[in-house]
Records
---
Amino acid sequence: MARRFFEGRDHAAAYLKYRVAPREIVGKIMTFMEKMALKKFDLAVNVGCGSGQVTTLLGPHFSQVIGLDVSAAQLEMALTNNKPSNVTYRQCPAEELPFVSGEVDMVTATAAVHWFHHEKFLQEADRVLSPGGCLAVLSYDLDMLEYGDVSDKLNDICQEYHAALRSSSDLCNRNSFYQDMFNSWSYPDKEWLLSAMKASSPDPEVTMVVKYYYWLACKP
């Protein structure tokens, strides 16, 4: 079942201001595509794009990039983000991708698939991908916070929060959720990857150590 959260204007504005933009991870996705000797870089689709951080990062690598989200407020924020001229946005659910079969060269979703009806999304991703196209599914966990001499206290609070979340949510172990998805995916050319990166947020400037886990697969 798809779950609809984060659709309000205030939440969307916070996404635009604070959401981590995984520039290094996008570079690794492009390296994977080049390693697979993929030659088509016409259309990339970012599903559950939110306020467009990943969508804009894809702009330099493809002729056209389209960000999709079910939330009008998130897309409104995305349009205020600086974006290349080849990046556009559409409102639609992840389970009904508005493309003909075999039209898309890359489908990606970042920290979003666990909110989708993921079986329907993956069926749609397979349908719209061209032969040789890439599916890139990413998520992350906040591993550590750094802020002066209160870093330890902040991390204690985060650990307490995550412990409470684990006791009440069926999505508490997202790493396992994504790894199970990867293990069951049928494409023979696929990779499971882990990366750590640092990012800073403004007001106040807190450094976050973020652990990404993601899988990439090339359609036969």
---
Amino acid sequence: MRNEEDGKPQFYICNCFTTDNIFLEDYKLHVRFVTEQQFRLDYHTLLGKLGCVTEQQFEDVLNKISQEVDRRRRLAVTSAERAAVIKDVYQPLHPHVYHLQESYLSPKFKQLVECCRSSSAGGEGLSDLMEEEAAPRVYRFPVFEKSFCEQLVEELEHFEQSSAPKGRPNTMNHYGILLNELGFDESFITPLREQYLHPLTSLLYPDCGGRCLDSHKAFVVKYDMNEDLDLSYHYDNAEVTLNVSLGKDFTEGNLYFGDMRQVPLSETECSEVEHKVTEGLLHRGQHMHGALPISSGQRWNLIIWMRASQERNHLCPMCNRRPTLVEGEGFADGFTKHSASLPNASCALT
């Protein structure tokens, strides 16, 4: 756990993590659970309309919620325990992929970053290096070289097939890997965020924390014909998200984007976005989206939820309330205690 004494901020989670945004897969519904009485009042009628019509079905829902709440309460401890065991017993197939090197990055991506770093950059020239999709403020551009994607997927498959313990990325993805537990944070994800993604997010998303991203959660998700095929409509616990298609060979499975989470689905027109291997999609975390089912093959995606404490310290994006802080491990959910003042100049619009 980080602490203030070493000059680095300690990060926290919001207390809503154990009560809010619990995904009921059978009914494609996110719910809030504080007490059984509250839950019955809030969701009994809605669940009935979605097919939960017997008391036994409702009891099954309550049992699944109980298991998920228990998992979340123990998550910091179990994650740290898994990371320690992985460090002890797992032998990487490709040790070099854990350390970011410029040679892994697409030349076009490096050119894009340089364009954003330029003191004269005001958006000029960016349209030649990346595409803005039909969905507003969703950008597509190459991130990695194909050879690196192939080696990274080989490493992930090697880990997946090992006896080392594994944790699921979130409540919606059953198959995937938490990259902090595997040891990717310090030498790969953090420098990628700080040195390469920060210039882009500063220019493209200054109004939602893009200039002051100070933590992240990174994981990979896997879609397979015999496992998860798709991903339901949702928003991310992030200010800005990067989603990179790593491989392997698959058909279909495009992403689709609606509106921001405050806009009802009934008032939303969704746009489909093609997602090619090596390419990243950059978007606002609160932008509602999902993944269409693959029709063949297997697909791996790298997801980086980037967070700005100066934004989320004032309003938790998951519960829409001022966060109630609970200590967490590592970057936790990106909250800090330094939120009494207004966002500083590096984070505010100019």
---
Amino acid sequence: MWTYLRLADGGTIGLDFAPLDDPTLPDDTPIIVVQHGLTGGSYEPYVRAILHRASEEGSRSRIISGCALACPWDLERNNKGYVSPRSRSTLKLMQTSCDRLLSSFLGKHVYLKAMGGNFQSLLRRHEKELQADLEHIATRVVPSTLALLNPTLEQVDDIFTRVAGGPAPTFPFSTVDEYYRWGSSHNVVQKIGVPFLAINADDDPIVSHVPMDDGGNGLIVMGLTRSGGHLGWFQAGLDGSGSFVDRWSTKPVLEWLKLTGEDIVHSTATPSRRLYVDEEGWLREEGTYMLGCKMIAEGGVFNGNGGEQGMLQGL
């Protein structure tokens, strides 16, 4: 089941729910929110691996389903605008890919070229909409981005993302390196205020440095595996037969989400702010007037196994 939310800053969030809502579940049943990689979607195998197992667990415990976000870059800015359909349920966020530029050969010449190609495919698919507003800065940079020949993600970011990747006054950036420094996760590690698990591999061609000191933040657990690549943790299936492969990371991730959802006592000293709908139909939270969302479309069941035409999966 899918839902589109329009955000107050002009962005859009796509929510894909799995499984369908079950009215027999308690209102406080936790919901897992899975964010895919930069050019991915809910059809990604690593997303479906988590949601499939989480849904199975939901039949035996308090863990329920999740939703994969079609536009994950909007969530950090607008996460308070999304209201769980279960009024007292908690949202557990999972980010599946940290797309950062590297100096490795594999990162530059394989992964980042695949990312650049995927980004061009997305722009080409939505070219008409992106150029509808002649006054918008994206209108100026879309043609030059699409004209790039077999670009890397860094080249796409240099022409498009650093300029039109977000609203003013943060954007545009003068150089792509300035944009990368601003967007680095190292800037926010110390500010994380909830229990946080990060799993990386020591041979990941994308993540060049893992802050194993947790940035001095006691809420963070930083795991580093010997090998695994970029989201490439595979093992023999759970039946032990070796007839199929399974994703090793699914088990520790779900164990962590269950731990933080059921076994940790969370402080409720700070009450949630009141949600309200303003005169223009925007759902907002008191004290954060710059954030808000409204539903613009929703639909029924769709098949998430087919992927997207012209897009390389796993990114």
